[in-house]
Design brief:
A twelve-stranded antiparallel beta sheet has the order 1-2-3-4-5-6-7-8-9-10-11-12, with no helix packed on it. It is mainly beta. It is flat. The protein is built from one helix and twelve strands. The mean pLDDT is about 90. Helix content is about 5%, strand content about 60%.
């Protein structure tokens, strides 16, 4: 496929690449540019999320039965009716995902990242009937994200075992948190569920 271009009221989609079902030489590249979220108002849940523009890119490489898939989302002018969400993500967050799809097996998240105004988060591992996930996040709590809370928080954790009844671990750390005029320094909490 040398070039594919679709243009309409819902945006522009472009694609190019090579498909070879019998070999591992597949390489597809897709790109979409979407107009403001108001164009999709009937499809979106109320005032929860909106954007001025949205760019998305996707790639598929390798064998069709076990490809490496990469996705990237870059909204501009992101808004949210949920104040903490808007404060954490800001107007231009970046989301990326690299995953391997295995034949008959569970997908493996090589890396899922979220970079926002006040949050940096990542997740990696296997998702299927049995979970084997690790996650981490750093959250700077600006005034609008969690009213009355100031400071930064680091989270790390895992989710392992059967998807219906996983074991969870969580570690939370902060050099200094302040809420309602009270200060907690050198916070370190761990939990196993």
């Amino acid at each position: 496929l040398r070039a594919l271009r679709l243009v309409g009221a819902a945006g522009v989609a472009e694609g190019a690449g090579r498909l070879d079902p019998r070999r591992a030489r597949n390489a597809l590249r897709l790109r979409a540019t979407l107009p403001p979220s108001s164009v999709f108002a009937a499809l979106l849940p109320g005032e929860t999320i909106g954007w001025a523009a949205l760019e998305a890119e996707a790639t598929l490489d390798g064998r069709l039965d076990s490809p490496l898939v990469a996705l990237t989302l870059r909204p501009a002018g992101l808004t949210s009716g949920v104040a903490p969400l808007g404060a954490l993500l800001g107007p231009a967050p970046h989301v990326s995902l690299r995953t391997t799809l295995a034949p008959g097996g569970a997908p493996r998240v090589e890396l899922l990242t979220l970079a926002g105004q006040a949050i940096q988060a990542e997740l990696r591992g296997s998702i299927g009937p049995v979970l084997d996930l690790a996650f981490a996040a750093e959250i700077a709590a600006p005034d609008g994200a969690i009213p009355g809370l100031a400071g930064a928080l680091r989270l790390r954790g895992t989710a392992t075992g059967p998807r219906d009844d996983p074991s969870l671990t969580l570690a939370a750390e902060s050099a200094r948190l302040e809420a309602a005029g009270r200060v907690v320094e050198a916070l370190a909490l761990t939990a196993r569920i």
